[in-house]
Every structure is written in C-alpha cells, then in structure tokens.
C-alpha cells in the first residue's frame, strides 16, 4: 500500500485527477454491472413470474367455478328403473319405441323406426339434461327425411 501511495504522489496534479476520475468510473461500472444490473434483472424476472402466476390462478379459479356450477346443476337421480324412464320420456316426446331392452350394467338398448332428425337430437339433449346419457348411437337414413335409430342409454354415473 505504501508503494502505491509513493507511486501516486510521484504523479502530476493532472495525472492524479485523471487517475481519481478513472477509479471513480471503474467503481461505478463495477457497482452497476455487479449489483444494479443483476438486481433489476432479478426483479424483472420476478415480476414476469408473478404476472404468469396471477394469470394461472385466474384460469384455475375460473375452471373451479365452472366445475362447481356443473356440480350444482346436476340433475336429480332417476326415480325408478332406467327402462321405464326412457319409455316414458319417449312417449312424452312422441317417439314410438320399436324395442326397449335392458342390457348389462344397467344400460337400455332402444330402437326407433322413424324420427325427424332435429326432434330426435332435441330429445337426446333433453335426456342428457335429465341424467340419461347416450352410450352408443347408430342413425340410418330412411330416405323420406326421417331416420331410424338404435342407441344404448345409461344413467349418469354408470
């Protein structure tokens, strides 16, 4: 350290000032590059992660609310056997069932010889709203703007 002081004292006033300015600029550069820049980069990265987390939280809350709404709007359990419910609903909708036979696992297979497609799809939507789901569906064109249908239905949760 004494050698550095001797070297510095041997310089002219102009050189001493230039060396001091150079040292101050070097310290500022090191502080900026070693402390300020990494801290601001870290803060920026933290802000981006926080914004992403807020968006993910909002999406998750929206999905949870949608699931809760679906659970609250769940139709009541069917009263009576599935086959009887399907027969009653088909008669109410004006669809004569040519066959309605129970199959394994509580499912019911039905056949309708002639139905208008729009009315049939509306009836199927009503069934699903009531908790009766379509397991399989086979629709054939009759050629007279009606369709023949064979489908297997099951109660929700089966």
UniProtKB/TrEMBL annotation:
The keyword Cell inner membrane applies. It comes from the Bacteria. The keyword Phosphoprotein does not apply. Keywords: Cell inner membrane, Cell membrane, Membrane, Protein transport, Transmembrane, Transmembrane helix, Transport. GO terms for biological process: protein secretion by the type II secretion system. GO terms for cellular component: plasma membrane; type II protein secretion system complex. It is a single-pass membrane protein. Pfam families: T2SSM. It is found in: Cell inner membrane. Its main location: membrane. Belongs to the GSP M family. This is Type II secretion system protein M. It comes from Sphingomonas aliaeris.
């Amino acid at each position: 350290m004494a050698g550095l002081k001797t070297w510095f004292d041997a310089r002219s006033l102009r050189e001493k000032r230039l060396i001091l300015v150079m040292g101050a600029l070097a310290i500022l550069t090191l502080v900026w590059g070693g402390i300020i820049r990494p801290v601001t980069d870290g803060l920026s990265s933290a802000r981006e992660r926080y914004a992403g987390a807020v968006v993910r939280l909002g999406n998750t809350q929206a999905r949870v609310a949608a699931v809760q709404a679906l659970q609250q709007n769940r139709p009541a359990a069917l009263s009576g056997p599935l086959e009887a419910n399907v027969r009653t609903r088909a008669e109410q909708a004006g669809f004569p069932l040519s066959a309605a036979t129970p199959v394994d696992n509580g499912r019911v297979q039905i056949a309708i010889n002639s139905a208008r497609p729009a009315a049939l799809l509306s009836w199927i939507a009503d069934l699903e709203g009531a908790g009766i789901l379509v397991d399989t569906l086979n629709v054939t064109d009759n050629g007279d703007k009606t369709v023949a249908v064979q489908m297997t239905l099951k109660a929700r949760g089966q």
